[in-house]
UniProtKB/TrEMBL annotation, chain B:
InterPro entries xrefs: BP-dependent_transpt_permease, MetI-like, MetI-like_sf, OppC_N
Primary localization class, coarse: membrane
Location relative to the cell: Cell membrane
Transmembrane feature ranges: 37-59, 100-128, 140-173, 219-244, 265-287
Membrane topology of this protein: Multi-pass membrane protein
The ABC transmembrane type-1 domain, residue ranges: 98-288
PROSITE patterns: ABC_TM1 (PS50928)
Classification via PANTHER family: OLIGOPEPTIDE TRANSPORT SYSTEM PERMEASE PROTEIN APPC (PTHR43386), PEPTIDE ABC TRANSPORTER PERMEASE PROTEIN (PTHR43386:SF25)
Protein family membership: Belongs to the binding-protein-dependent transport system permease family.
Keyword vocabulary terms for this entry: Cell membrane, Membrane, Transmembrane, Transmembrane helix, Transport
Source organism per UniProt: Saccharibacillus endophyticus
This protein's name: Peptide ABC transporter permease
UniProtKB/TrEMBL annotation, chain C:
Keyword terms of this UniProt record: ATP-binding, Nucleotide-binding, Transport
SUPFAM superfamilies noted in UniProt: P-loop containing nucleoside triphosphate hydrolases (SSF52540)
Biased composition (Polar residues): 12-25
Protein name: ABC transporter ATP-binding protein
Record CDD domains: ABC_NikE_OppD_transporters
From TrEMBL, chain D:
Protein name: Peptide ABC transporter ATP-binding protein
Transmembrane helix listed as a keyword: no
Gene3D superfamilies membership: P-loop containing nucleotide triphosphate hydrolases (3.40.50.300)
Protein's UniProt keywords contain ATP-binding: yes
Primary location recorded for the protein, binned into one broad class: membrane
Domain ABC transporter, first and last residues per copy: 6-257
UniProtKB/TrEMBL annotation, chain E:
Record protein name field: ABC transporter permease
Keywords: Cell membrane, Membrane, Transmembrane, Transmembrane helix, Transport
Membrane-spanning residues: 12-30, 101-122, 134-156, 200-219, 253-278, 304-329
Organism: Saccharibacillus endophyticus
Main localization, broad class: membrane
Length: 501, 303, 348, 330, 336
C-alpha cells in the first residue's frame, strides 16, 4: 500500500494513502449521501461554495464551524435583514470534465438538491426561497427569513456544486455511481464491497493535492482495522475502538488522534410513559448512572462526560443545572418521593450494531438494580429499533446523535422541541419551545446563546434523558501522515493530507 | 393334537440368525459402552448437562456480576478462566452458557422433531398428493442455506433466545421429515406392517405403535447430531447479533463480545466459550456417531 | 385323489366355530369367488414421480373359486404375480379391476371401516418370519393386537385366549413375554400363524410361509398348517414357488405365468399329467432328490419376459417349445376340461 | 504329492465377535480330484460358505481367521502362502461364483470389463484381446448377442443372465477348480435348470473340478459325484451321491431326506427333525446333533463321535455306526 | 440426458415459486422499516415518506408481491437500499468472490476428505483411521467464527504469514482482467502470477476456515460409504479374481463409494453458503455473505430475497448437476 505510483506526466511521484474505512457507502450523489463513506466520496470529488475554517485545539487541528471560509465562492455579502446573500464565484475554476464552473451550475445544483428525496430537508432547513444567477460569476440566494445557520448549512457536502453540462443527457441517477464535480480527487473506482480508489485531480483549481492516490479499504470488523493499522497495512484507520487506543499508541510508528466530537450518547426515557412521566423518576435515574464507570470501563477514557443536552463544543453550550453526579442515595430518595420506594421494572430497547451501547446497558442495569430498579434489556435489529423509535412509544432506549450543523438551534430543534422530528420521547416543555423559537429568530449570536443556555438549563433539570457521554472520534494514522483535520461531520478531507515518503 | 404336541415341542436353543438378532439387542448397551469415542462423547454431554444444571452451585460468581475493578484479568487463581471487560468471571459465564446452549439445542431439536417427524411420516404413509406437497415443501426449505434461513427467521421474530430456538428448530424440520419419510417408506413395506393392516388395525395406530418405534433409532441418531448442529447454529446467530440479549451468558455471544479483544491479547474471552461450543458439539457428534455405528447393522457388518 | 375332498365333519366343525357370524351362509360350498382379478402397478420413473409411464401387469385377469375347507395352491416363478394375487384378494393392495366375493359379500364394495371389520374373516401368513413380526413387540403384544383391535375383552379372557392360541400352534405360554428375535425361524412362523388365527378367520392366504425355512423346519410348519386346517376347518390359499411343497399341501393347484392363471387342476391330476407346456417345463425343471431319477428335462429358452410389456397373444409363446403362429397372435382363454382348466391353444 | 486337486485337512475357521469366538468351521477334511464334482449340503449356518471362503482365502479381514488346518491346492498349502502368491492362484487356477448374481457384480462397470478383468490381470492380455475374450466367454455360457452385452451394465440383465456372466467371469482363466456357493438358490427353477445344464456342459468341456455348495438335495442328486453333509461346522457324513440317497447312515441325513415333501407322497404327515441348529456359541458338549436326534443315546450327550470310514469311503460321524462297525469287527 | 435436464429445470419452477413466496413473506415480516433506516437519523417524516413511495412500500402487500414477481421476471432483483445500488449490481460485484470462496473450500474439502476417508476405511481401526476420525470429528464441531478469529490472530497477527484480512488481493496489485470473476482462474488465464499468488494467499485462510465442516462431513461420509461398499458382494467377487487389493479399491470400490458422498457434497452447498456469511464477515471478504448479514440487520428486503433466491436456485442447480453426475457414474440411473 505504501508503494509510489508515478504521475502520468513524469513529475516527481507523489505518495499514495490507504485508509481502513468501515462501511462501503451507498451513493456518490451529493444530494442523497447520508453516511460517512458516501460523504467522504462526495467531499473528495466536489467543492461547495464555502467551507469551514480551522483552529487548533489541544495541539491538533480541528475544524471551526463558526468560521466560514471561501471555496468556490471567493466572497459574499449578506443583506441587512439577513435574507439575501450574494456570492461572487472564483475565476477560472474548471470541473474535472474541463467545463468551466459558472453560476448556472450553482443554481442547477441547489435546485436539484431542493428536489431530492434525502437532501431536500437540509435545503428546507436552510430556508432558501430562490437561487438566481444574475451573471456568470454571481449567485444570489434569497431566504424566506433570516437564518443564522444558513452559511453553516451550505458548507455541508449536500450543497456541492455539480457540473451541469456533464449532466446533460444523463439519467438522474447518473450521479449515484459517477461524479461531476470540481473536487481535488477523481474517483477511479468505488466498489462498496471492497474499496474505493481516488486519484489526484492534477488540474485542481486550488492546487493539486499532495497525495497521488487514496484507497479506502472497507473493513467492517473493527478489530481487523486495528490490526491492519498496527501491522502497517494501512496508513490510516477510522472508528478505532476506544479499548485499542492505548495499545496502538504504544506502537511508535502510529499516532492516534482522539478528538472530542459533537456526537452524544444519551439514555432516553419516554416522558409520556409511566413511571418516566414523572420528572423525579427521570432525575433519579440520572443520579443512578455510573458516569465514570461508563467512560472508564466502556470508553476507556475516550469520551467525555456530558452535562447538557448539547455537546460541549457546540456554541452556546452550558452545563448550568447539571447536578447529576452519581449518587445512589439521592436517587433512592427521589424515587421514594416519586412514589416508587421499592423501585420498578422497565424495558430498555437496544438497537444492535454498537457494542459499547450494550456494555453501557449492562453496567447501568447492574447499577439500577442497586436502587431496586429492574431494567430488562430488549435487543432488536437496528432497522427494527429505528422503526420502533419512530412510533414514539419505547419506554427507554439508548441513542446517539450528531448534529450536522453544530448549532444548538439545529440540535434542540430536532431532539427536544415538542415538534422535533427526532423527539421520540415526547418531551414537551412549552417554555423550552418558546426559548428555542425566539432564539431561532435572534440574529445576534450572544443573545441567541443566552436563550439557548436557558433552554438547556430547563432541559437538564427536567432530565428527559440521562446524559451518558460525548464521544471522541478516534482516527489512527501512521506517523508519516500529516495534515489531518478533524471535522464535526467526521469526514476526512484528503486534500489537506500529505504523507512523508 | 397330542401327536402334534410331541413333534412340535419347541427347542429352547435359538437358531443362529435369531441369536445374532438377540445379540444385537442385548449387547446394544455393551457395544455402545465398548465404543470408546461414543463414551467419550457421552461423557462430554453428561458433564456439560450436569454442569449446566448445577451451574448456580458450582459457578464461583454470578454470570452477570460485574466488577470493573478486576476486569480483563488473565486466568488466575481467583478467576480460572479470567475475567471479561466488566470483570465478569468467564468461568461462571461459560458454565451458565452451557445452560443456554444445551437448552437451546434441546428445544430446537424438539421443534424440528415434533414437526418434522409427523410430516415425514404422514407424507410417506399416505403418499399421494399430500405427501408430494409436504415433501416438496421440505425440499424448498432445504434449498435455503440453513444459517441464512435461520437468520431471516430470527430477525423476523425479533432477536432473542426464543426466536433463536424457533429459527434453528424450523431449519431442522426438513432433515427430520426426510429421514422419517425414508424410514416410513421402507417400513410400510415391511411384512409386519402389512400383517397389522391385514388384521384391520387403524392407520393411526400403525403409524404410532409400529412405524414410529421402529424408525426411532435413526431419528435418535439424527436428534443427537441435530443437537450439535442446533448449538452451533444458535451460537452463530448470537455471534451475528441475532441471539440472546445482553447480559445473558451464551457461548456464541461471548465469542462475539470477546472477539475485539483477541488482538489485544485477551485470548481467554473467546477461547473458553469456543471450547465450550466445541466440546458440547463434539460430545453430541461422537455420541450420535457411536449410536449410528451400533444401531446401523450395515456399518457394523462392514467391520 | 383321496386328498381332493375333506371329510364332511370338518366342514360342519367350521360352521359351528363361526357360529355367531352375521353373514348368511350360502347354499353353495364356494367360499370365495374371484372374477377377473387384475392389478396393474403404474410404472414411475425411478427417482422423480411423474405421469405413469406404463403399468406392470402383476395380475392380469385371474378368475377362480375356492371351496370351503380346501387348500388351493398357487405356483409360478418369481414375479409372476402370486403374492399380488394373494394380497389383492384380501384387498391389502387395491385391485385395479375384478370382483371378489366372500360368501356373497363383494369385498371390493366395502368401505374402509367395513373392510377393517371384515378382516376378521380372512387373514394372511407371510413369507419372511423375520420380517413379519414387529421386532419391538413381545409375542404377547403381537397376539393381543388383533384381539384388541376387534373386540373389547377383559384382561383375563385375553390372557386365556393368548395361551390357547399359543398352545394351538405349539408354543409354550412362557414364550409370550419374549421378543421375536429370541425365536427361531420356525417358531416365528408359528407366531405368525397364531396371529392369523387369533380372529378365527375362515380363510387364510399363506404367501410362501415356508420358503425362508430350512427343510427340517419347513416340514414342522407344513405339518402344523395341515393339522390346523383339519381342526379348524380353514380354507387356504397357499402360495409357493416350490412345487413339492404345493403338491404336498394343496387339493388343487393353479399355475401362474406373467400374471395369468395358465392351468388349474386337482393336485394329483396335475402332477400325474400336466397339460400346459409351461407346467410341463416347470415340473421337469425341478431337480429330483434322486440320483437315478429319469431326467427328460424340458429346458426353456430365455428368461421370463417383463410383466411391464408382456408378449402378445399367449404370454408364454416366447419360451414355449410348441408355440404356433396362433399363440403369438391370440390370447388363449382358461377353458374347463372336466375338473381341470387350462389356457392353451393346444387343447382347443 | 497326491493326485487330489484340492485337499483340505483339519480346517478350522473362527470368527471373533462381540459374543465370543465362533468356530464356524470345525475341523473339516475335503478332497476333490480333477474333473470331479463334490457337493456340500447342510442347513443354513452350518458353515458351507465359510468353508468355501476359507479355501479362497477370502474371509472377512480382522474378525475371520483360519485357526488350524491345511488347504493344499495341487500340493501347495494356501494357508501358509503370501498374499501375493494366493492372488496368483485365486481367480486364475481356482475361481468362485456366488449365490446372489444381483449383488455380486459391480453395478457401475460394464459386463465386458468385469468378465475379462481376471484374464487381463493374470494372463496379462491387452484391452482389445480382453474384449474378444469376454465376447467369446459370454457366447460360451449361452448368452446371445454377446457383442452387445459386453457393453451393458449388470442391472440391464436378468438374474439368469447375470449368473451366466458370473460363470463366464469365473471360467475366463480356465480354472482347474470352480467353487460354486449356492449358484442357483436365487434363481427360478426353469432358470436353475438352464444354469445347472450349463455348468455340467462346461465341466465336460474344460474338465474343471467343481465344489458345489447347496442346501437343495435335488441339486446335489443331479450334479454331484460325491457329497459331504455338514452340520454345525462339522462334516457328519461323506459318500458318493448314490449311496447317500440310497442308504444314508447319519440320523441327520436320514431326517433331512425324510422331511422332503416329494418323498413323502401319499403320506398324511411329513417327517421332521425337531428343534433347530444349535447356536455356534453354545454348542452341545457331545454330538452336536444329539439334542435333535431321534435315536440318541446317553453316550451321544457326553462325548463327541469321530468321523469314521465305514465302508468303501463312506464316512459318518455317529456312535451308532461306530458301534455297528465295532460289532462287525469283533 | 438433455431432455431430462430440461425436464428437471422445468420441475424446479414450482419449487422456485415456493422459494419466491417464502422469501417474500420472510422478508416482509422482518420488522423494521427500510425507509427509516435509509433516511438516516436526522431525516424528517417527509423524507421517509418520499423514500417509502420510491420503494413502493406504501402499496398493499399483495401489490408489492405482484410487482416483485413481475420485476423478477424482467431480471430486476430490486434495489439494495443500504448500499444504494441495484441488487443485480451488488451481486455482480460480490458474487464472484463468494463463488470463488465456496468453490475453493469445496475443492479443499474434497481433496483432503476423500483420500482421508478412503484411507480410514481401508485401514479401519488403524492409527491413521483413528487420527482421521478424531480430526474429522473435531472439524465438524469447531464453530467457523471461532476458527476464523483464531486464524487471523495466529497467522496474521502473531506469525505474519498471511496477508491482511482485507479483500481478495493485495492492494498493490491490480485485480486480474475480469473473465470469470474468480481471481485465481483469471490470473492463471492471463498469466499474471503475482496476482495469482496474492489472491491465493488471501483466499487460503478463509477457504480453509469455511471448508472444515464440509471436510469433516465428507471424510466421514466417504469413510462410511467406503466401508459399506467394501462389505458388499461384488467386492468379494473382485477379490475372488485375485487382483491386487489396490485395484479392488480403486476400480471397484471407489466409484460406488463416491455416489453417496456426492449427494452429501451437493447438500453441503447450502451449508457452505451459510458458512460464507460468517467467514466473509470475519475476513472482510468482499462477497455476498457479509452483504446479506447487513441486509438482514438493515431490514433491506431486496438483497435478502435475492440472496435466498439465488442460493436456492444455485442449490437446486448444483443438486441437478449432482444428479447428472450420478447418472454418469452410476449406470443404474438413467434419465430420459
Ligand atoms: N408395490 C409394487 N409396485 C410396483 N410393482 C410391483 C409391486 N409389487 C409387485 N410388483 C411387481 O408385480 C409383479 C408381480 O409381483 P409379485 O410380488 O406378485 O410376484 P410373486 O409371484 O409373488 O414373486 P415372488 O415369487 O418373487 O414373490 C412383479 O413384476 C413385481 O415387480
Ligand atoms: N462375518 C461373520 N461374523 C461372525 N460369524 C459369522 C460370520 N460369517 C459367518 N458366521 C458364522 O459362521 C457360521 C457359518 O456360516 P456360513 O455362512 O458358512 O453358513 P452357510 O452354511 O453358508 O449358510 P447359508 O445356507 O445360510 O448360506 C454361522 O453360524 C455364522 O453365524
Ligand atoms: Mg411373492
Ligand atoms: Mg452360505
Amino acid at each position: 500500500a505504501n508503494q509510489q505510483t508515478a504521475n502520468a506526466d513524469g513529475e516527481q511521484a507523489k505518495p499514495t494513502l490507504t485508509v481502513a474505512y468501515s462501511e462501503g457507502g451507498t451513493t456518490m450523489d451529493p444530494a442523497e449521501a447520508s453516511d460517512l463513506t458516501s460523504d467522504t466520496l462526495v467531499l473528495a470529488a466536489y467543492d461547495q461554495l464555502v467551507t469551514y475554517g480551522k483552529k487548533t485545539v489541544d495541539g491538533s487541528e480541528v475544524a471551526n464551524t463558526d468560521d466560514i471560509q471561501p471555496m468556490l465562492a471567493k466572497s459574499w455579502e449578506e443583506s441587512a435583514d439577513g435574507t439575501e446573500y450574494t456570492f461572487t464565484l472564483q475565476d477560472g475554476v474548471k470541473f474535472q470534465s474541463g467545463n468551466p464552473m459558472t453560476s448556472a451550475d450553482v443554481v442547477y445544483s441547489y435546485e436539484r438538491l431542493g428536489a431530492s428525496s434525502s437532501g431536500s430537508f437540509l435545503y428546507g432547513m436552510a430556508d432558501i426561497k430562490s437561487v438566481e444567477a444574475p451573471d456568470d460569476s454571481t449567485v444570489k440566494i434569497t431566504l424566506n427569513q433570516a437564518n443564522h445557520m444558513f452559511m453553516q448549512i451550505i458548507a455541508l457536502y449536500n450543497f456541492s456544486i455539480i457540473d451541469q453540462k456533464a449532466m446533460e443527457g444523463q439519467a438522474d441517477d447518473y450521479l449515484k455511481t459517477n461524479t461531476a464535480g470540481s473536487g481535488a480527487f477523481k474517483i477511479d473506482k468505488w466498489d462498496p464491497a471492497s474499496e474505493a480508489v481516488f486519484s489526484a485531480n492534477a488540474e485542481y483549481w486550488n492546487g493539486a493535492p499532495a497525495l497521488s492516490k487514496v484507497t479506502l479499504k472497507f473493513t467492517k470488523e473493527a478489530s481487523n482495522r486495528v490490526l491492519l493499522l498496527d501491522k502497517g497495512d494501512v496508513d490510516m484507520a477510522i472508528e478505532i475502538p476506544a479499548k485499542d487506543v492505548s495499545a496502538l499508541q504504544s506502537n511508535e510508528n502510529l499516532t492516534v488522534q482522539s478528538n472530542a466530537s459533537n456526537r452524544i450518547l444519551y439514555f432516553a426515557m419516554n416522558n409520556k410513559v409511566a413511571p418516566f412521566d414523572n420528572a423525579k423518576v427521570r432525575q433519579a435515574i440520572s443520579y443512578a448512572i455510573p458516569y465514570e464507570q461508563l467512560i472508564g470501563d466502556v470508553m476507556y477514557g475516550q469520551a467525555k462526560q456530558m452535562k447538557s443536552a448539547v455537546a460541549s463544543n457546540t456554541p452556546g453550550y452550558t452545563d448550568a443545572g447539571y447536578v447529576y453526579d452519581t449518587n445512589l442515595d439521592k436517587a433512592k430518595e427521589l424515587l421514594t418521593e416519586a412514589g416508587y420506594p421499592d423501585g420498578f421494572a422497565f424495558d430498555l430497547t437496544l438497537g444492535s450494531g454498537f457494542q459499547d451501547w450494550e456494555d453501557d446497558a449492562v453496567i447501568i442495569q447492574a447499577e439500577l438494580a442497586k436502587i431496586g430498579v429492574t431494567m430488562n434489556i430488549e435487543k432488536v435489529a437496528r432497522a427494527q429499533f429505528l422503526e420502533m423509535q419512530k412510533e414514539k412509544n419505547l419506554t427507554a432506549f439508548i441513542s446517539k446523535w450528531t448534529s450536522f450543523v453544530n448549532d444548538p438551534g439545529y440540535h434542540l430543534g430536532f431532539l427536544l422541541s415538542s415538534e422535533g422530528s427526532s423527539n421520540y420521547i415526547n418531551y414537551s416543555n412549552p417554555e423550552v419551545d418558546k426559548l428555542w423559537e425566539e432564539a431561532g429568530k435572534e440574529a445576534d449570536q450572544s443573545k441567541r446563546n443566552e436563550l439557548y443556555a436557558k433552554a438547556q438549563e430547563l432541559i437538564t433539570t427536567d432530565s428527559p434523558w440521562s446524559y451518558l457521554y460525548e464521544y471522541n472520534r478516534i482516527v489512527g494514522m501512521n506517523n508519516k501522515v500529516s495534515g489531518y483535520i478533524y471535522y464535526p461531520d467526521e469526514v476526512i478531507r484528503f486534500n489537506t493530507i500529505s504523507k512523508a515518503q | 393334537m397330542s401327536e402334534t404336541a410331541t413333534t412340535l415341542v419347541p427347542n429352547p436353543v435359538p437358531q443362529p440368525s435369531a441369536q445374532v438378532a438377540a445379540a444385537k439387542r442385548q449387547t446394544f448397551t455393551r457395544l455402545l459402552m465398548k465404543n470408546r469415542l461414543a463414551m467419550l462423547g457421552f461423557g462430554f454431554i453428561i458433564i456439560w448437562t450436569i454442569l449446566a444444571i448445577i451451574a448456580p452451585l458450582v459457578a464461583p460468581y454470578g454470570p452477570t456480576l460485574t466488577d470493573t475493578a478486576s476486569k480483563l484479568q488473565a486466568p488466575n487463581a481467583a478467576h480460572w478462566f479470567g475475567t471479561d471487560n466488566f470483570g465478569r468471571d468467564v468461568l461462571s459465564r461459560v458454565l451458565y452458557g452451557a445452560r443456554i446452549s444445551i437448552w437451546t439445542g434441546l428445544i430446537a431439536v424438539a421443534i424440528s422433531f415434533c414437526i418434522g417427524v409427523p410430516l415425514g411420516g404422514i407424507a410417506a404413509y399416505y403418499g399421494g398428493r399430500i405427501g408430494n406437497v409436504i415433501m416438496r415443501l421440505m425440499d424448498i426449505l432445504l434449498a435455503f442455506p440453513s444459517l441464512v434461513l435461520s437468520m431471516a427467521i430470527a430477525a423476523s421474530i425479533g432477536a432473542g433466545l426464543t426466536s433463536a430456538m424457533i429459527a434453528v428448530g424450523v431449519v431442522g424440520i426438513p432433515e427430520f421429515a426426510r429421514l422419517m419419510y425414508g424410514q416410513t417408506i421402507s417400513l410400510k413395506e415391511k411384512e409386519y406392517i402389512e400383517a397389522s393392516r391385514a388384521i384391520g388395525v387403524k392407520d393411526k395406530v400403525i403409524l404410532f405403535r409400529h412405524i414410529l418405534p421402529n424408525a426411532l433409532a435413526p431419528l435418535l441418531v439424527q436428534a443427537t447430531l441435530g443437537m450439535g448442529f442446533a448449538i452451533l447454529t444458535a451460537s452463530s446467530l448470537s455471534f451475528l447479533g441475532l441471539g440472546v440479549k445482553p447480559p445473558i451468558a451464551e457461548w456464541g455471544a461471548m465469542i462475539a463480545e470477546g472477539r475485539e479483544y483477541i488482538i489485544s491479547g485477551q485470548w481467554w474471552l473467546v477461547t473458553f466459550p469456543g471450547l465450550g461450543i466445541a466440546t458440547a458439539i463434539l460430545g453430541f457428534n461422537l455420541l450420535g456417531d457411536g449410536l449410528r455405528d451400533v444401531l446401523d447393522p450395515r456399518l457394523r457388518s462392514g467391520k | 385323489m383321496s386328498t381332493l375332498n375333506k371329510p364332511e365333519e370338518t366342514l360342519n366343525g367350521a360352521t359351528s366355530l363361526q357360529g355367531s357370524d352375521s353373514l348368511q351362509p350360502t347354499d353353495s360350498d364356494v367360499l370365495l369367488e374371484i372374477r377377473n382379478l387384475t392389478k396393474h402397478y403404474p410404472i414411475r420413473k425411478k427417482m422423480f414421480s411423474r405421469q405413469p409411464a406404463g403399468a406392470v401387469r402383476a395380475v392380469d385377469g385371474v378368475s377362480l373359486s375356492i371351496k370351503r375347507g380346501e387348500t388351493i395352491g398357487i405356483v409360478g416363478e418369481s414375479g409372476c404375480g402370486k403374492s399380488t394375487t394373494g394380497r389383492a384378494v384380501l384387498r391389502l393392495v387395491e385391485p385395479t379391476a375384478g370382483e371378489i366375493r366372500f360368501e356373497g359379500t363383494d369385498i371390493r364394495a366395502l368401505n374402509p371401516e367395513q373392510l377393517r371389520k371384515f378382516r376378521t374373516n380372512m387373514q394372511m401368513v407371510f413369507q419372511d418370519p423375520y420380517a413379519s413380526l414387529d421386532p419391538r413387540w413381545t409375542v404377547r403384544q403381537i397376539l393381543e393386537e388383533p384381539l384388541r383391535t376387534h373386540e373389547t375383552i377383559g384382561q383375563k379372557e385375553l390372557e386365556d385366549r393368548i395361551d390357547s392360541l399359543m398352545e394351538t400352534v405349539g408354543l409354550s405360554p412362557y414364550h409370550a413375554s419374549r421378543f421375536p428375535h429370541e425365536f427361531s425361524g420356525g417358531q416365528r412362523q408359528r407366531v405368525g400363524i397364531a396371529r392369523a388365527l387369533a380372529l378365527n378367520p375362515r380363510f387364510i392366504v399363506c404367501d410362501e410361509p415356508v420358503s425362508a425355512l430350512d427343510v427340517s423346519i419347513q416340514s414342522q410348519v407344513l405339518n402344523l398348517m395341515q393339522d390346523l386346517q383339519q381342526q379348524l376347518g380353514l380354507t387356504y390359499m397357499f402360495i409357493s414357488h416350490d412345487l413339492s411343497v404345493v403338491r404336498f399341501i394343496s387339493d388343487r393347484v393353479g399355475v401362474m405365468y406373467l400374471g395369468k392363471l395358465v392351468e388349474l387342476a386337482p393336485t394329483a391330476e396335475m402332477f400325474a399329467e400336466p397339460l400346459h407346456p409351461y407346467t410341463k417345463a416347470l415340473m421337469s425343471a425341478v431337480p429330483q432328490p434322486d440320483p437315478d431319477a429319469l431326467r427328460d428335462r424340458i429346458v426353456l429358452k430365455g428368461d421370463v419376459p417383463s410383466p411391464a410389456n408382456p408378449p402378445s397373444g399367449c404370454a408364454f409363446h416366447t419360451r414355449c417349445p410348441v408355440a404356433t403362429e396362433r399363440c403369438r397372435a391370440e390370447l388363449p382363454e382358461l377353458k374347463t376340461y372336466g375338473n381341470r382348466q387350462v389356457a392353451c391353444h393346444l387343447y382347443a | 504329492m497326491t493326485a487330489e486337486l484340492l485337499e483340505v485337512s483339519g480346517l478350522r475357521t473362527e470368527f471373533v465377535t462381540g459374543g465370543g469366538v465362533i468356530r464356524a468351521v470345525d475341523g473339516i477334511d475335503l478332497k476333490i480330484s480333477r474333473g470331479e464334482t463334490l457337493g456340500i449340503v447342510g442347513e443354513s449356518g452350518c458353515g458351507k460358505s465359510i468353508t468355501s471362503l476359507s479355501i479362497m482365502q477370502l474371509l472377512p479381514k480382522k474378525i475371520g481367521r483360519i485357526a488350524a488346518g491345511e488347504i493344499r491346492f495341487k500340493g501347495e498349502d494356501l494357508v501358509r502362502k503370501s498374499a501375493r502368491d494366493i492372488r496368483r492362484v485365486r481367480g486364475n487356477r481356482m475361481a468362485m461364483i456366488f449365490q446372489e448374481p444381483m449383488t455380486s457384480l459391480n453395478p457401475v462397470i460394464r459386463i465386458g470389463r468385469q468378465v475379462a478383468e481376471s484374464a487381463r490381470y493374470h494372463l496379462k492380455i491387452g484391452r482389445k484381446e480382453a474384449e474378444l475374450l469376454s465376447i467369446e466367454m459370454l457366447r460360451k455360457v449361452g448368452i446371445s448377442r454377446p457383442e452387445q452385452i459386453v457393453k451393458q451394465y449388470p442391472h440391464e440383465l436378468s438374474g439368469g443372465m447375470r449368473q451366466r456372466v458370473m460363470i463366464a467371469m469365473a471360467m475366463v482363466c480356465k480354472p482347474e477348480l470352480l467353487i460354486a456357493d449356492e449358484p442357483t438358490t436365487a434363481l427360478d427353477v426353469t432358470i436353475q435348470a438352464q444354469i445347472l445344464d450349463l455348468m455340467r456342459e462346461l465341466q465336460q468341456e474344460e474338465g474343471t473340478a467343481i465344489l458345489m455348495i447347496t442346501h437343495d438335495l435335488g441339486v446335489v442328486a443331479e450334479m454331484c459325484d460325491r457329497v459331504v453333509v455338514m452340520y454345525a461346522g462339522q462334516v457328519v457324513e461323506e459318500t458318493d451321491v448314490r449311496t447317500l440317497f440310497r442308504s444314508p447312515q447319519h440320523p441327520y441325513t436320514q431326517g433331512l431326506l425324510d422331511s422332503l415333501p416329494q418323498l413323502s407322497e401319499g403320506r398324511e404327515r411329513l417327517a421332521s427333525i425337531p428343534g433347530q441348529v444349535p447356536n455356534p456359541l453354545e454348542l452341545p458338549p457331545g454330538c452336536r446333533f444329539a439334542p435333535r436326534c431321534p435315536v440318541k443315546m446317553r453316550q451321544c450327550e457326553e462325548s463327541a463321535p469321530e468321523l469314521l470310514s465305514t465302508e468303501s469311503g463312506h464316512q459318518c460321524r455317529c456312535f451308532l455306526r461306530q458301534m455297528e462297525k465295532e460289532a462287525v469287527g469283533s | 440426458m438433455f431432455g431430462y435436464t430440461v425436464k428437471r429445470l422445468g420441475q424446479m419452477i414450482p419449487s422456485l415459486l415456493g422459494i419466491v413466496i417464502i422469501t417474500f413473506i420472510l422478508s416482509r415480516v422482518l420488522p423494521g422499516d427500510p425507509a427509516v433506516m435509509m433516511a438516516g437519523e436526522q431525516a424528517d417524516d417527509t423524507v421517509i415518506e418520499n423514500i417509502r413511495r420510491d420503494m413502493g412500500l406504501d402499496q398493499p402487500l399483495y401489490m408489492q408481491f405482484f410487482s416483485y414477481v413481475i420485476k423478477l421476471f424482467q431480471g430486476d432483483l430490486g434495489m439494495a437500499y443500504h448500499t444504494g445500488h441495484t441488487v443485480a449490481e451488488d451481486f455482480a460485484n460480490r458474487f464472484p468472490a463468494t463463488i470463488e470462496l465456496t468453490l475453493f473450500s469445496i475443492l479443499i474439502a474434497v481433496l483432503v476428505a476423500i483420500p482421508v476417508g478412503i484411507i480410514a476405511a481401508t485401514r479401519k481401526e488403524s492409527i491413521a483411521d483413528h487420527i482421521s476420525r478424531v480430526f474429522s470429528l473435531i472439524g465438524a464441531c469447531v464453530p467457523i467464527f471461532w476458527l476464523g478469529l483464531m486464524f487471523i490472530y495466529i497467522f496474521y497477527s502473531i506469525l505474519g504469514w498471511s496477508p491482511a484480512p482485507m479483500g481478495r488481493i493485495s492492494g498493490d496489485l491490480n485485480p486480474p482482467t475480469d473473465i470469470t470473476g474468480l481471481y485465481l482462474i483469471d490470473s492463471l488465464i492471463t498469466g499474471d502470477f503475482l496476482a495469482f499468488r496474492s489472491s491465493l494467499a488471501h483466499l487460503i485462510l478463509p477457504a480453509i476456515c469455511l471448508s472444515t465442516g464440509t471436510m469433516a462431513i465428507v471424510a466421514r461420509m466417504m469413510r462410511s460409504s467406503m466401508l459399506e461398499v467394501i462389505g458388499q458382494d461384488f467386492i468379494r467377487t473382485a477379490r475372488a479374481k485375485g487382483i491386487h487389493e489396490f485395484l479392488v479399491i480403486s476400480r471397484h470400490a471407489l466409484v460406488n463409494a463416491l455416489i453417496p458422498t456426492l449427494t452429501v457434497l451437493g447438500l453441503q452447498f447450502g451449508y457452505l453458503l451459510g458458512g460464507a456469511v460468517i467467514t466473509e464477515t470475519i475476513f472482510s471478504w468482499p462477497g455476498v455473505g457479509g452483504y446479506v448479514t447487513d441486509s438482514i440487520l438493515a431490514a433491506d428486503y431486496a438483497p435478502i430475497q435475492a440472496f435466498t433466491l439465488v442460493s436456492a436456485l444455485l442449490y437446486s442447480l448444483i443438486n441437478l448437476l449432482v444428479d447428472l453426475i450420478y447418472g454418469w457414474i452410476d449406470p443404474r440411473i438413467r434419465y430420459e
